[in-house]
Amino acid sequence: MFERFTKDARDVVKEAVAHTERTGAARVGAEHLLLALLDREGSRASFALTALGLDERREPVREALERARRRGGLTQAETDALAGLGIDVPEIVARVEEAHGPGALSAEPSRSRWRGHRPFDRAAKDVLTGALRTATARGHRHIGDEHLLLALTARPGVPAEVLADHGVTHASVTRVLYGDGTAKAG
User: Fold this and answer.
1) What is the pTM for the complete model shown?
2) H-only helix segments in the chain
3) CA-CA distance, 51 to 84, in Å (whole number)?
4) Contacts 24+ apart (CB under 8 A), 110-117
5) How far apart are the C-alpha atoms of 65 and 59, rounded to whole Å?
6) For residue 2, is pLDDT > 80?
7) Which of 36, 74, 103, 181 is deepest in the core (most CB within 10 A)?
8) What ranges do the domains of the chain cover?
């Protein structure tokens, strides 16, 4: 499948792996793909994100991803659902971090244990597969970083929720990229 990736899409995957290594995570996750997309410039995905106003809000997106990581990867919707059951996730996170240090719920193993290859988790694999399906459905022979962005916004989870909270949805990205005759990526 990677032979069908454009240079921009391959660069996103490589940068996602680099994000994973910098944080000491054991596996490349969908959130790492989003972080890599946020770092892009001059690509179709970066055009879409900029057109949707995310250019000025990249740091709050990164902060929201960090908060989700500290919650053990729970989405805000999951946190709210647990609150409805009387489970105060922020309080649990605070207590665990008080006892074990910041980020203790992120389920990341010791950095020293993971050197070399990091596998992709199920969510990241689903995004890559979704990008292939998106490209194929549009009749595109190659998978670009815009297909990765579309796949991220279409798949339930923390990255899609964080993007939606900042006005970036599957529908809005599709509209900007292929849309209604206004802004289109070249």
Assistant:
1) 0.82
2) 7-23, 30-39, 44-51, 58-70, 76-84, 89-100, 122-137, 145-154, 158-165, 170-178
3) 36
4) 110/24, 111/24, 113/26, 114/24, 114/25, 114/26
5) 10
6) no
7) 36
8) 2-69+108-178
| CA 60/CA 166 separation, integer angstroms | 9
Task: Find out whether 108 and 24 touch, Cβ atoms under 8 Å.
Answer: yes
The tens digit of pLDDT for each residue in 50-69 reads: 999 998 888 999 898 888 88
What homologous superfamily is domain 2-69+108-178 in, according to CATH?
Clp, N-terminal domain (1.10.1780.10)
Q: What is the pLDDT of residues 105-151, one digit of tens each?
A: 665 554 444 456 789 999 999 999 999 999 999 999 999 999 999 99
CB atoms within 10 A of CB 151: 25
Q: Residue 148 in contact with residue 9, Cβ under 8 Å?
A: yes
pLDDT of residue 98: 75
pLDDT of res. 183: 46
